Amino acid sequence: MVLNDSTSVYRIINIETFLGILINKKERYVRPIDWWQDTFEGYMLHQLDTKASRRQVLERLYNISDKDINLTIRNLSKLLRSRYSCYAQCWSTIRDSDAMWRIYSYNNRAIQLISSVSNIQRMIDVSVRDGLKSEIDYVKYDINDEEEALNRILVRNAKVDAAFFHKRPAFKHESEVRVLLNDYKRYEKVDKFAAVAIRSNMKFADKSKPLIDQIEDALSHLIDKKGGYLSSAPSLVELEIPKLRDYIVGVRVHPQAPDWYADLIKKVCRNYKIRFCGKSDLYRSTV
Questions:
Q1: Rounded to whole angstroms, how far apart are CA atoms 106 and 138?
Q2: 270 vs 141: CA distance, rounded Å
Q3: 276 in a domain, yes or no?
Q4: FRET pair for 251, CA 20 to 30 Å: which of 173, 197, 200, 277?
């Protein structure tokens, strides 16, 4: 399914995030592995963060790579590249969803931003710094296990951000559109740096150990080193919003928000010349 520029998209946020966007005129894109709660998002990338699960990742890579040491290191570098160079934000094509309003209720104080694919893309095009590439696309709900998740990244010629556009069928209700920024200058550096660093660390490894153990020791030294290149990578990216009303075409509040709260948000929107569309009418009786 092709995503059209005119497609309307919706994002439910809390009031703190809303006010931050208005006052600072900035949008925030976060590194999925560090900020998102679903540990299946980039499943194998999460596994790299702890020594206990790191071994499982290496064994999978080693076997997928036909126990070729160079190919194993190359695939490992690709995983690290995905882990440290992608930043994302989530929207939905569904205007009203009982599930979404309940999950992101914020005690019935949730705020919904209304925009479009073209509005988001224009804001990014104007504001994006050199070295960042953007992609906006539907999320596909076709991941059933970690093996599939890993293959999304390691398939030949796959984009570095491929894993972040696939989720489990259990999340299909979100009808998600994902905005992803790829710091391609950083990921090129991560790719080269990781491969060189792992090989360099292996020179000091215990040669009596199996090769996979030597790789594991070298990888742990690279990831766990405080103040190192990987640990210094920013966990979020902020972009300037040139004109708020060209980016946010409307604002609504939770269908069960108190009237006083809806009035407050209406006044805030008026002050920033943004259209206020009232409460969601999801639960309003039509009788």
A1: 26
A2: 38
A3: no
A4: 173
Distance separating alpha carbons of residues 145 and 187, to the nearest angstrom: 26
Question: Strand 111-116 and strand 250-253: pairing?
Answer: antiparallel
Closest alpha carbon to 77 in 162, 183, 194, 211: 194
Q: Total domain count for the chain?
A: 1
The verdict on residue 227 lying in a domain is yes
Average pLDDT over residues 177-188: 81
On average, the pLDDT of the chain sits at 84
What residues make up the domain containing 229? 27-87+114-247
What pLDDT was estimated at residue 13?
97
Return the beta strands (E) in the chain as ranges.
8-13, 26-30, 86-92, 111-116, 132-138, 176-183, 236-240, 250-253, 276-279
As a whole number of angstroms, the distance between CA 230 and CA 235 comes to 11
Q: Whose structure tokens read 């992101």?
A: 104
Does residue 235 lie within any of the structural domains?
yes
Would you state the structure tokens that stand for residue 81, as one six-digit string?
A: 């590249």
Asked whether the beta carbons of 31 and 235 are under 8 A apart, the reply is yes
Residue 226 placed within a domain = yes
pLDDT digits over 238-284, tens only?
999 999 999 999 999 999 999 999 999 999 999 999 999 999 999 88
